[in-house]
Specification:
The structure holds 2 protein chains of 2 kinds. By secondary structure, chain A is mostly beta strands. Chain A has 1 helix and 11 strands, in the order αβββββββββββ. In chain A, strands 1, 2, 4, 8 and 11 form a 5-stranded antiparallel sheet that branches. A 4-stranded antiparallel sheet of chain A has the order 3-9-6-7, with no helix packed on it. Chain B has helices at about 1-20, 60-65, 90-110, 115-130, 140-145, 150-170, 175-195, 205-225, 230-250, 280-300, and strands spanning about 25-30, 40-45, 55, 255, 260-265, 265-270, 275. Chain B has a two-stranded antiparallel sheet. In chain B, strands 4-7 form a two-stranded antiparallel sheet. Chain B starts with a helix and ends with a helix. The chains are: A mainly beta, B mainly alpha.
Chain lengths: ~180, ~300
């Protein structure tokens, strides 16, 4: 019995140390974005998408990244930072790119426009977003880094005005239905 | 002298275009539309944020995974010959062909051709050592490959992991120049392979539709590379990528379509939206251009 408890503590300790190490390594903070997902989102098999990103950013700034979404896949976006904010989720927006024809100064032109398709500020700071596309599309994600809160990166090199931000992308194949 | 002048003029023109089209702060690009030729000239008109945009690019394996179920058969002649490795003396060719061979093992494992996986992995490891990323190829990785020689699914995962770990390692160690070349090499090889697997043109051919989708992937690669365009090798490969982009833009059909969003079971579907679509001329032109670029980059 004592042995089980001892090994249990060691096991939890190893996981804690690994988690702390990874949190300190800003480059892979996206690995921890699943922690804020609601329980029902833990069901279903999602594959890690290699386009996930993490970066160090100044608090209060907007971090923006772009990735490619292929058709026949469902994508799940989750964002996170290492800011300790009483478990509060961070704000993010998802945008798509469209090409539209418009008249500009009497000339017909093609405009590349970004259109917002989701902003979690309007959805109680929901921690994730799931979508699929009908054709290959370029998607943008804008993450607003909170201005307050302590971060893991305080202890590291950059200082208290910086935070680690992660954008976790996961995907799974669209299940074909019917014949 | 004339060649140098031409090269520098091209680089200058390319730089100017990229500064405009790849500016991370642009929300709207305006492009001249000549309906017949789709000649496009980008002009910066609006900036809304001061943030830097990071550009992600899917791995070659993701593309092969998509075409795997399209009733195509492996053509082993399409991969880059291992013997060509001796031709790669400089960092530029080593990095580009690290990407090329990485795409090759993704392709081979995707189509269950495991015979040469280990040999190709060893070549990638050697190139990786020369590029300073030997840490990615530890004993554990090589034994994982040896232990899974008969298991295509595992090898496919391993090839993807190796590519991604190399990507992460280079990014974390500020080796962005090499990373830009590797990504470009991987993209060029995977596009070369799928254009040659696609068969004859037809509008409903899903592989050809995906070749059209690679225009958007190409845009993100060019945007990514533009961060490192001060490096001569990166700026040189950007000329090739930009040429390829122009082949797409000059030939694709613009489809005007209103966009909509539908939601079912908490999953949003993005429908419609104006976009470019493939046609036979574009397919043939892209196939020809990517073959020229790929041959040039793998034969020296």
């Amino acid at each position: 019995m004592k042995k089980s408890i001892f090994f249990g503590i060691i096991f939890v300790g190893i996981i804690f140390i690994q988690a702390a190490y990874a949190q300190n390594s800003c480059k892979r903070v996206h690995n921890f974005c699943t922690e804020k997902l609601p329980e029902e989102e833990s069901k279903g098999k999602w594959s890690f998408d290699n386009q996930s990103k993490s970066a160090t950013f100044e608090k209060g700034k907007v971090y923006e990244m772009s990735f490619i979404a292929y058709k026949n896949f469902i994508y799940r976006i989750a964002t996170c930072s290492d800011i300790i904010e009483d478990g509060e989720n961070i704000q993010f927006e998802v945008l798509r790119t469209e090409i539209v024809r418009k008249e500009v100064n009497g000339k017909t032109r093609l405009l590349k426009e970004k259109t917002s398709i989701f902003n979690n500020q309007a959805d109680e700071l929901k921690s994730f977003y799931k979508f699929k596309v009908k054709k290959t599309e370029k998607i943008f994600i804008k993450v607003t880094i909170p201005t307050g809160g302590n971060t893991e990166s305080d202890k590291k090199n950059k200082g208290p005005e910086y935070a680690c931000v992660g954008v976790l992308l996961e995907h799974r194949k669209v299940q074909k239905t019917g014949f | 002298m004339k060649t140098n002048l031409l090269k520098h003029s091209t680089l200058f023109l390319l730089s100017s275009t990229l500064v405009i089209s790849c500016n991370s702060n642009i929300d709207v690009d305006i492009s001249d539309l000549t309906v017949d030729s789709l000649k496009i000239e980008s002009v910066k008109v609006n900036t809304t944020t001061e943030s830097l945009i990071e550009y992600s690019v899917p791995t070659p394996n993701e593309l092969f995974e998509i075409i795997r179920n399209q009733n195509v058969k492996l053509d082993i002649e399409l991969v880059n010959d291992i013997a060509n490795k001796e031709l790669y003396i400089h960092t530029k060719s080593k990095a580009i062909n690290f990407g090329v061979y990485s795409a090759d093992i993704g392709y081979m494992s995707c189509f269950e051709h495991n015979l040469e996986f280990l040999r190709y992995s060893k070549v990638i490891e050697e190139l990786g050592e020369d590029l300073g990323i030997s840490d990615v190829f530890d004993k554990e990785l090589m034994s994982r490959i040896e232990n899974n020689e008969g298991n295509s699914d595992s090898l496919f995962v391993i090839s993807n992991d190796t590519y991604f770990n190399s990507y992460q390692y280079l990014e974390e160690n500020n080796k962005g120049n090499e990373l830009a070349l590797i990504i470009s090499g991987g993209f060029i090889e995977s596009l070369y392979i799928i254009t040659n697997l696609a068969g004859d043109y037809s509008k409903d051919n899903l592989i050809i539709q995906e070749i059209g989708g690679q225009k958007i992937v190409l845009e993100n690669i060019i945007d990514f590379c533009s961060t490192y365009m001060d490096d001569e090798a990166v700026s040189e490969i950007m000329i090739d990528l930009d040429d390829l982009g122009q082949v797409y833009e000059a030939n694709m059909d613009f489809i005007e379509e209103s966009s909509s969003i539908t939601t079912e079971n908490d999953i949003v579907t993005l429908n419609g939206g104006g976009h470019f679509e493939m046609n036979e001329t574009t397919f043939n032109a892209v196939k020809e251009k990517i073959t020229i670029i790929r041959t040039k980059l793998t034969q020296k």
